[in-house]
Amino acid sequence: MPSLVNMEVELAVKGFLIDQEKMVEVVERMTKELKMGLAKDTHPRAVIKCFVTYVQDLPTGKERGKYLALDLGGTNFRVLLVTLLSQTDIHITSKSYEFPSTLMTGTGKALFDFLAECLAEFCKENAVENDNLPLGFTFSFPLQQQGLSKGILVAWTKGFNCEGVVGKNVVQLLQEAIERRGDIRINTVAVLNDTVGTLMSCAFNHPNCRIGLIVGTGSNACYVEKTVNAECFEGYQTSPKPSMVINCEWGAFGDNGVLEFVRTTYDKVVDKVTPNPGKQTFEKCISGMYMGELVRLVVVEMIGRGAMFVGDSSQRIQQRWSFKSSYISDIESDGPGEYRSCNKVLHELGIIGSQEADKEALRFICEAVSSRSAKLCACGLVTIINKMNINEVVIGIDGSVYRYHPKYHDMLQFHMRKLLKPGVKFELVVSEDGSGRGAALVAATAVQSKPKM
């Protein structure tokens, strides 16, 4: 342990340090919850929902042609034209559209009319308005799928609250808005969330990719299950296709209390000030939306006890959510004994001229929070690999925490190796634009796997 870090700080972060024994326990508990989500009898009371996605065909790398993708994940949204020329030659034209905030809480009709208007403008700019191209729709809100092109909105999140959409099929709402215009011909063939897009995008170049993971603002994973185990799929016993992609919605793991043994008092404080207290317990221990606030709470407590930044506090750090999660990546990117990025962060927070011991303590707190995130993520991936019972797998990953934290990839690898059975091989791969390219690939496999008339 760093000699400069005082006992008070070490004690404060003790709860974030999860040992091997606890990690094994997390895997055991998560395995049980995952099985409950898959089984028809226990699904209604399961916290890890294991939603059926209706995606049964992974890309082969031989998909060709032109496809449209629409990506609505929050306040920006994008339209893409993806041309698959060969496995290595993919041409993507995309455009982002600024989202008027009034649409987020207006009517569903206004929202989908806006999406259709941008889609029409994009298609005309690219001269494909009459081509009747297949479209994949990435819709990163909780959906219950009833088919590949039928997704019922369960609830709005991320500040959206458009009336007349919850309980409706979002594909149908989009298609109706397109038809109301009458100036473009498009066929929406699939709706998916970003984890599925991540898996599909990665599988196009890595045939052995079977898991898609997001570790960014939020966290979730999907994986390829045997169709016979996906009991919530009506045709699970009779389907001619052996596989089904399952959207775990693993962020809710622990909502029933089974994760209390790895949560800290700081986690409970963060949970109380979120818009959804008591929900997404696992996600709140892992994802970028909450990591910075966890660090801030520890630091503020240490300042209050006179254990850090004595006589040097700032108003800024007393404000909720003022410590961005990107600061953790910055602070941990400094080499041993270096504080260049750390000094920048402290400057932004209005803390000037602090001691080296304070900077060491801050780094120590950041490392405690980020390493717990990576350990829990490793537990989740190991649970899924064990459930699939395979010896070799590629995992497609996207999200700001995984992409930008300097040590996250290495921590994930290290802890997964310690937990997996000997001989199991895995590779972690950054997935390129899952929500765009992945959506086009879901559309491509949907079209190309249909029996030819």
Give your account of this protein's structure.
By secondary structure, the protein is an alpha/beta fold. It has 14 helices and 13 strands. The chain has helices spanning 7-13, 20-38, 108-125, 170-181, 194-205, 265-272, 281-286, 288-304, 325-332, 340-348, 356-388, 400-404, 408-419, 434-448; strands spanning 51-52, 65-72, 76-84, 90-98, 133-139, 143-147, 150-153, 186-192, 209-215, 219-226, 243-247, 392-398, 425-430. The strands form three sheets. Strands 1-11-10-9-12-13 form a six-stranded mixed sheet, sandwiched between helices. A five-stranded mixed sheet has the order 4-3-2-5-8. Strands 6-7 form a two-stranded antiparallel sheet. A hairpin with a 5-residue loop joins strand 3 (76-84) and strand 4 (90-98). Helix 5 (194-205) packs across helix 14, helix 9 (325-332) runs antiparallel to helix 10 and helix 11 packs across helix 13 (408-419). The longest helix is centred in the last third of the chain and has 33 residues, at 356-388. It is globular.
Q: Would you count the extended β strands for me?
A: 13
Widest β-sheet, arrangement of strands: 1-11-10-9-12-13
Strand content is: 15-25%
Q: Please work out how many helical segments DSSP would assign.
A: 14
Structural class: alpha/beta
Residue-averaged pLDDT: 92
Radius of gyration: 23 Å
Major β-sheet, in short? 6 strands, mixed
Low-pLDDT residue spans: none
Topology:
Blueprint: H1 7-13, H2 20-38, E1 51-52, E2 65-72, E3 76-84, E4 90-98, H3 108-125, E5 133-139, E6 143-147, E7 150-153, H4 170-181, E8 186-192, H5 194-205, E9 209-215, E10 219-226, E11 243-247, H6 265-272, H7 281-286, H8 288-304, H9 325-332, H10 340-348, H11 356-388, E12 392-398, H12 400-404, H13 408-419, E13 425-430, H14 434-448
